[in-house]
Design goal:
By secondary structure, the protein is an alpha/beta fold. The protein has a domain of 179 residues: 2-enoyl-CoA Hydratase, Chain A, domain 1 (Alpha-Beta Complex), CATH 3.90.226. Helix 5 crosses helix 6.
């Protein structure tokens, strides 16, 4: 367990707050475990009708904890990896998922939003999926879901060039439902969640099921996860993480 994810249930809404602001809410293996456990609990608990994701500090999430990445790349990581449990829980969720996103949303901080049903951003939000910058591959079924949402050209620029999408543009492109001032962000997400709580849960679940091919999404996650794991063990990935640690630009020419 970890205190870096705060879990609260109130009036039918489970709120999951990323609470590691000193690390820009980078997701550690332990945090993934709490998130996965919470989503599984939400599915089993009839008192939970909606799940809201939010974050403390100036960023939604800096993505995966790069120390965990580095440990996996060198084979030093031990124990159960919870990231796939979390991603599968997102894919299989029947409860409506709502997100309030401020500041940086990097990697999985953006791809998890593709599984949310309502997303609200602040103007300072910056959604990025810079997998190629780290010599990795897309995950969370984003290789399908992102181009389906915003088109191939925009998705490729986000994947390959690491181009950022701000809060207002995220709305214009269909990645978010609304862009609101930062001081209103959590209230807007909660208001939406409260509206959903009042809707018939069975109808919401059927609607969500019809809108998503869960089996195809889960299968793609497995394929992406396999390739992602392979990429973590490449010389390119080692160079990317070493460059990050040394605060320099990576030189892929010597390893490609």
């Amino acid at each position: 367990m970890t205190d870096h994810v705060q879990v609260a249930v109130d009036a039918g809404v489970m709120t999951l707050t990323l609470a590691r602001p000193d690390k820009k809410n980078a997701l550690s293996n332990a945090m993934y475990g709490v998130l996965a456990d919470s989503l599984e609990r939400a599915e089993a608990d009839p008192a939970v009708r909606v799940v809201v994701f939010q974050a403390d500090g100036d960023s939604f999430s800096a993505g995966n904890d790069l120390q965990d990445f580095a440990a996996q790349a060198t084979g030093a990581f031990e124990g159960e990896r919870h990231v796939m449990r979390f991603l599968k829980a997102l894919a299989q969720a029947t409860r409506p998922l709502v997100a309030a996103v401020q500041g940086q949303a990097v990697g999985v901080g953006t791809t998890m939003l593709l599984h949310c049903d309502l997303v609200f951003t602040s103007p300072d939000a910056r959604l990025t999926t810079p997998f190629v910058n780290l010599a990795l591959a897309p995950e969370a079924a984003s290789s399908l879901l992102l181009p389906a949402r915003i088109g191939h050209a925009r998705a490729y620029a986000m994947f390959a060039l690491g181009e950022a999408v701000d809060g207002a543009t995220a709305v214009a492109w269909g990645l978010a439902n609304g862009c609101v001032p930062l001081d209103q962000l959590r209230a807007r997400a909660r208001a939406a969640a409260d509206q959903l709580v009042k809707r018939p849960a069975g109808s919401l679940a059927v609607t969500k099921t019809l809108m998503r091919d869960v089996e195809a999404i889960a299968a793609l996650m497995d394929r992406e996860g396999e390739l992602f794991g392979q990429r973590l063990r490449t010389a390119e990935a080692r160079e990317a993480f070493m460059a990050f640690a040394e605060r320099r630009a990576p030189d892929f020419s010597k390893v490609s």
